[in-house]
Specification:
Helix content: 55-70%
Distance between the termini: 40 Å
Strand order of the largest sheet: 1-4
Mean pLDDT: 78
Number of helices: 19
Number of strands: 4
Order of helices and strands: EHHHEEHHHHHHHHHHHHEHHHH
Shape: globular
Radius of gyration: 21 Å
Largest sheet: 2 strands, antiparallel
Structural class: mainly alpha
Low-confidence stretches: 1-11, 383-401
């Protein structure tokens, strides 16, 4: 029995607010600053962010590329060719320090977010909720996520307008930002093929014709990266060498339980991201086939649209790629899904999926229930293995990691019922405030020297 709603914009109407994205940004910034001050005042946050502690982990490698270019010395285990060139070179060309480039990163993300919410009419409460997703701390750190976000928003705009040149430009820039650009070729092909699900000649020719530019964009991006790395290291494809032989990533079967780095601190974020990717893929299999539904001007995104299908396929492919190609911890045999939180939540594809879930007027409850059962099973299979650590998992719980994990899982459920449950927008408001708290806790952990995904 499908669930029905009275209005596709009930989520927007519930709190009687109609405000523009710039006002949303100001509100969010004010809430973040007040919360930051209060948490510092009561010694819940301990670090003072600055240039000396925000450029840690991958940011340090990106800074090395900015200053010295690429190096590749596998005999001495020294290389930085696993990173992509767009962000470190923008960092170099701007001449900004760690704080300055972090501010620029956040402005870049906000520009992409504004483009997204203006196009698809995100309800204000959902905008706030999405801005407070904890993994978004990487948008105000010296990481490449912000430029990938803006590039991916260009891809979504290209798909929406059926503008292959805009889509190809976004794919090219996205791949110069992060390695997941290779996924865009099969995703673009599947997106077109799912409209007809046929092997007829005219269907296959249309799929091939519309996939040419995206494929060329990926090839051009790979060539650009190869040329830059060859000129600086003498090795054209050292990235692939790093990702396969030097970091022990290779294709394999499923290995449960899944794990991550600093398990108790991070599995709630990486695990939830895995659930989103797996669950979205299952929902697509149930509901995503058939003719495309065109979105009316001013309406939110429609479920059976190319944009939603493209976004869901990206989320699903990203998760399954890591599960079948991630590092295996030799002692436990577990597959590491570290960084899954930022790979999923720091993308506009997740936000499009969240909007589609929140505003869909009709749901097949059987498909929804099946998806939730599978997702919960994946969480159970993750276990409590520790990656890169000899300590027992309970020794690392200086903060209530389990509560974070379960809390974020529960707080995603209103997205499924936002159009069918009058209290859901208020639940999203609570989720927003909880997200602000968790975001600042993660940021404090990062600046304190911990890896947070």
């Amino acid at each position: 029995m499908p669930l029905k709603s009275d209005s596709i914009i009930s989520l927007d109407n519930a709190l009687k607010i109609k405000i523009t994205p710039p006002v949303i940004f100001v509100i969010h910034f004010a809430v973040m600053m007040v919360t930051f001050y209060l948490l510092h005042h009561f010694n819940i946050l301990l670090s003072n962010p600055g240039a000396d502690n925000i450029a840690q982990w991958d940011a340090g490698i990106l800074a090395h590329i900015r200053d010295h270019g690429y190096i590749f010395h596998p005999e001495t285990m020294q290389w930085n060719t696993g990173m992509f060139p767009l962000f470190p070179y923008i960092w170099k060309w701007t001449g900004l320090g760690a704080v300055g480039i972090s501010i620029l990163n956040y402005l870049v993300m906000l520009s992409g977010f504004w483009w997204l919410v203006k196009t698809y009419r995100f309800p204000p409460m959902l905008q706030l909720y999405l801005l407070a997703i904890p993994s978004l701390i990487f948008f105000f750190l010296p990481y490449a996520e912000a430029f990938f976000f803006l590039s991916a928003t260009m891809i979504i705009a290209g798909v929406e307008k059926d503008n292959r040149w805009l889509m190809a430009a976004g794919i090219y820039l996205a791949m110069l930002s992060r390695g997941t650009g290779l996924f865009f070729i099969p995703i673009a092909i599947l997106m077109e093929w799912m409209q007809d699900f046929s092997f007829r000649k005219e269907v296959l020719l249309r799929v091939i014709r519309k996939s040419i530019l995206p494929t060329l964009a990926v090839i051009l991006a790979v060539a650009t990266i190869a040329i830059i790395q060859y000129v600086q290291t003498g090795f054209a494809f050292s990235f692939f060498e790093v990702q396969t032989n030097l970091t022990n990533k290779h294709w394999h079967g499923m290995h449960f339980p899944l794990t991550t780095w600093y398990q108790a601190e991070n599995m709630w974020a990486d695990g939830l991201a895995a659930v989103v990717g797996i669950g979205s893929g299952i929902i697509l299999l149930f509901t995503g086939w058939g003719p495309v539904q065109e979105r009316k001007q001013g309406d939110p995104v429609t479920w059976n649209s190319k944009v939603v299908r493209f976004s869901i396929m990206y989320l699903a492919v990203q998760v399954w790629y890591v599960i079948f190609n991630g590092q295996i911890h030799e002692a436990s045999g577990s597959v590491a899904i570290m960084s899954m939180g930022r790979y999923i939540f720091c993308t506009p594809f997740w936000m499009i999926f969240a909007l589609a879930i929140a505003t869909r007027p009709v749901w097949n409850t059987t498909a929804l229930l099946f998806t939730m059962i599978i997702a919960f099973g994946i969480i159970c299979l993750m276990g409590v293995e520790i990656y890169f650590s000899d300590n027992h998992w309970w020794a690392q719980w200086d903060r209530p990691g389990l509560l974070y994990h379960l809390g974020m899982l529960v707080l995603t459920l209103p997205l499924f019922f936002a159009n069918r449950w009058r209290l859901a927008p208020y639940f999203l408001l609570f989720g927003y405030l909880a997200g602000v708290f968790l975001q600042l806790v993660l940021f404090d952990s990062f600046t304190g020297g911990l890896w947070v995904g």
